[in-house]
Amino acid sequence: MRSRPSNSEPEHRRTVPPPVAAPAEDENWSLIVRRCLDGDSHAWAELVRAHHRRIYCICYRFTGSPQDAEDLTQEVFLRIYGNLASFDLVRGSFKTWATTLTRNLLVDHFRRTKQQRVTDSIDAGWDGVDELPVSDRIADNRPSPHDRAAGRELQKMVQQALAKVSPELREAVILRDLQDMDYKEIAQVLRIPEGTVKSRISRGRAELARLLEKNRGQVV
Amino acid sequence: MLADALDGTLPATDSVAFESHGRNCVACGEILKHAREGREWLAFLHEEPEVPSDLQARILARTTGLGRPVAMGIPAPMHPAPVMHLGAFANQRAYLNARLLMTAAMAFFSIGITLNLAGVKLTQLRLADLRPSSMQANLSRQFYGTKGQIVRYYDNLRVIYEVEARVRELRRDSEATPQSEPAPKQEKANPDGRARKNGSRMHTPEGALAGPPVLARKDQETKPSWWSASAAALAICKIGAIKGGLL
User: Which of A32, B37, B130, B211 could form a disulfide with B207 if both were Cys (CB 3.0 to 4.6 A apart)?
Assistant: First the structure.
């Protein structure tokens, strides 16, 4: 029976790119932005191609909804497109700047949809129509705990729990644990001190674990 | 310190002290346990979610209007790249905004009406008409012309009302003379002034409150008979003058 992941790092964890962008890469993006401003549509296409997956990933992990993530990603790029002239490499890398715009948009979206979420039941998010019952997901009868299907189910469960973590903790956790940004970059994006960033990340992780433990306790 | 401990970036001495404290302190031990577990749970989300295949094309379509996906390794087209002016998209959206179009239409009509009221005809506009002195003279002419028309209109109305009042007066005079005679007969038919069926109702003698107007009687007494004829003639002359446009 597998109730939580093993302490060892998963295999795909090692394939994540290094957290901090090299200065040369920042310079490169700065040049591409300049080309965009000069009217080069291919530079803009290159910029969209390189960043749209990362932006979509942040939006999806924050909202938990593919439709919302898609709409928000498009909105983010519209905002980037409209404000590209205000990008300044001295104030931070393009990645940090784009992430800041994404985060601001996510906060706006969170405030807009607050009333809608209040009406939802606390446990409504766990009742997936095409999913297995939670007891089946937790008490995994399949031979290997590392089975791919079980991994997908657990992934859904964790994603749903993450969507319930308070937003200021959730954004810090996503940027650190899922986007592998360093504390300095996160502090720039969230405009808070590094110490607060670390505190929020720890609290966010703990809240997520408590939510998952509570849910498991209710079912089992 | 907790985040650094989980990252493994704490110095060796601090790490030992931290672990020791975590084992002895219940509250801190609980937080450390949950934070570690939460980090492990999050490892399940490291896999990138499936991105819609047409997302990139849709972003490009919404921004530059090109809408064709640019994949890695595909060479650039031979023809020169279309020049994209950043901000042009926002401008295009703004101009296409229905609200702006309505505002522009309202401004156009307002200017048109103002020019029309000021007597400015764009087809007959000359450069000399745009001089301040010409514009002032034109406006003064328009103003006094309009004022004159209004004054004439109300003068004509006054004359018409006077004539109508006089005609009514004459008609009343002519009707009052035969009606004043049968009053004693009515008085004779009901001399006590009471109602026949309902004794509680009080009736005044006919002619005490109603009857020919006092002024008419006075006029009849003071003015000679030829006066009525001359007044009617005067009224007819005035009406004729109004119709002829003399007044």
Answer: B211
